[in-house]
User: What shape does this take?
Amino acid sequence: MAVTLTEKAATHIKNYIAKRGKGVGLRLGVRTSGCSGMAYTLEFADEFNDTDSQFESFGVKVLVDPKSLVYLEGTELDFVREGLNEGFKFNNPNVKSSCGCGESVGF
Assistant: This one.
């Protein structure tokens, strides 16, 4: 299964990479953290790693390391505005639980 971006997320990422003046895409991952066990990681990637899985949505490359791919398969990353707040939202079908503060998820 692929890891995908919504059109809004892809547009936001493209604009940010253009402002940075460099970058090959967005790197997604998970790390151990928080009360539910895992937290998402998100960073702009300046290079590809040989072990990365690569996906493309709306012209943006999404890179995922092999250990994280198990947790992120089928995930859609969206960019949302809710009131005065804006940010990325992970729509992940693999999540079984999340903490009350929204910082971590359980698989």
Observations:
- The mean pLDDT is 90.
